[in-house]
């Protein structure tokens, strides 16, 4: 009996040791292995908790960005809540399962840009229209692109004297409830900035305006030792690179890359090509994470590229290449329906966020074999 118990103990120790070695290896190869998606609706939290436990954790996901926006029962500004928003109890379920599985959870609220979508103004400008950078641009009854106003999404004015009082209260509250040391501010696809008709921003350098807002948010987070994450597209020269106006900037905000704090983490997204701009951000001194969406073959190439960047870099550069993050731009509910095949009448296309997610993490987990 004693011999049998000893063998069991040795087997347990061997399994634990192999597990620790595998974990150490994958952490060394790709420190950040992320998944970014809209936060679930209140009634679907348990379904999403199950997905974290049964799908994200086994795939070695260690970072979860949840795009919360106004899907939380804010106490600081209840007027900004979505209907049927997440409760504190619901958020704590998400926090708990992430802690259990050593997953870092980071909430996002879209700041500066993305204050409207299609023909709908989102909560901040709906409740506080005085924050609008372009109040002269009216929301259409039916949205089309392109349009004469250049309207993609509205922005708030970064120089409005009271906008940060509201925004920072939301940031502080959401970071507290998610028990996080980082916050994602979005900051992508900002087309409206430094508008000629804005009484505060007119004539200002757009790069300085963008950098000023990034640094303002970063400095506020730093007070409580929290780090800022943003999307990287506004820091890429879309004209010079040929990357274009979506994944790069056409309004000169790209020069802000030399004006913002170097401890901001850049989420570098490219969806139609495996562009290697992670090297650019790393050479500028930023930690960078490459973010695919729906093209499995590109996600695999981007994962391989990230690994090569880390393997072939100097000791100074290597830590800046932080890893990979799958992005999902549908709702959490529709993604899970697709992932689990809950709609038998709908065929999952080859190029989908579901297949991209599976392909990327299959590639990542092959690294430790």
Write the layout of secondary structure elements.
Layout lengths: L1 H28 L2 E7 L6 H12 L6 E5 L20 H13 L3 E8 L4 E2 L2 E2 L1 H5 L35 H15 L4 E5 L19 H17 L4 E5 L6 H4 L23 E5 L8 H6 L4 E4 L4 H17 L8 E7 L4 H8 L13 H14 L3
Parallel strand pairs: 1-2, 1-10, 2-3, 3-6, 6-7, 7-8, 8-9, 9-10
Antiparallel strand pairs: 4-5
Structure characteristics:
single chain; about 375 residues; alpha/beta; eight-stranded parallel beta barrel; two-stranded antiparallel sheet
Commentary on this structure:
- By secondary structure, the chain is an alpha/beta fold.
- It has eleven helices and ten strands.
- It has helices at residues 2-29, 45-56, 88-100, 123-127, 163-177, 206-222, 238-241, 278-283, 296-312, 332-339, 353-366, and strands spanning 32-38, 63-67, 104-111, 116-117, 120-121, 182-186, 227-231, 265-269, 288-291, 321-327.
- The longest helix has 28 residues, at 2-29.
- The radius of gyration is 22 Å and the shape is globular.
How are helices and strands ordered from N to C? HEHEHEEEHHEHEHEHEHEHH
- Major sheet size, sense and barrel closure: 8 strands, parallel, barrel
Q: What is the distance, rounded to the nearest whole angstrom, between the alpha carbons of the first and last residues? A: 35 Å
Order of strands across the main sheet? 1-2-3-6-7-8-9-10
Task: Give the overall form.
Answer: globular
Helix content: 25-40%
What's the pLDDT, averaged over the residues?
94
Radius of gyration from CA coordinates: 22 Å
């Amino acid at each position: 009996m004693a011999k049998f118990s000893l063998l069991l103990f040795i087997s347990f120790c061997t399994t634990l040791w192999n597990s620790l070695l595998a974990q150490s290896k994958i952490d060394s190869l790709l420190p950040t292995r992320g998944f970014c998606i809209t936060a679930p609706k209140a009634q679907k939290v348990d379904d999403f908790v199950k997905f974290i436990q049964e799908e994200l954790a086994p795939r070695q996901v260690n970072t979860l960005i949840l795009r919360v926006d106004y899907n939380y029962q804010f106490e600081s500004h209840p007027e900004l809540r979505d209907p049927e928003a997440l409760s504190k109890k619901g958020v704590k379920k998400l926090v708990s399962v992430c802690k259990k599985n050593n997953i870092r959870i980071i909430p996002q609220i879209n700041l500066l840009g993305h204050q409207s979508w299609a023909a709908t103004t989102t909560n901040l400008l709906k409740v506080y229209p005085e924050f609008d950078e372009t109040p002269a641009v009216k929301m259409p009854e039916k949205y089309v692109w392109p349009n004469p106003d250049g309207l993609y999404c509205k922005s708030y004015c970064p120089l409005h004297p009271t906008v940060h009082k509201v925004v920072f209260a939301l940031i502080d509250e959401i970071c507290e409830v998610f028990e996080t040391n980082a916050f994602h501010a979005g900051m992508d696809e900002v087309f409206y900035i430094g508008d000629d008709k804005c009484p505060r921003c007119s004539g200002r350098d757009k790069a300085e305006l963008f950098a000023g807002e990034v640094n303002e948010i970063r400095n506020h987070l730093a007070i409580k030792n929290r780090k800022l994450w943003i999307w990287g597209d506004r820091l890429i020269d879309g004209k010079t690179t040929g990357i274009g106006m979506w994944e790069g900037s056409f309004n000169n905000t790209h020069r802000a890359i030399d004006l913002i704090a170097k401890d901001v983490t850049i989420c570098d997204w490219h969806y139609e090509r495996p562009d290697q701009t992670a090297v650019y951000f790393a050479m500028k001194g930023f930690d960078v994470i490459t973010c695919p969406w729906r093209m499995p073959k590109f996600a695999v190439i981007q994962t391989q590229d990230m690994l090569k960047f880390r393997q072939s870099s100097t000791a100074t550069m290597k830590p800046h290449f932080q890893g990979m993050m799958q992005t999902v731009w549908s709702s959490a509910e529709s993604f899970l329906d697709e992932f689990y095949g809950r709609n038998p009448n709908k065929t999952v296309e080859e190029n989908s966020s579901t297949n991209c997610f599976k392909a990327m993490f299959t590639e990542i987990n092959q690294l430790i074999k």
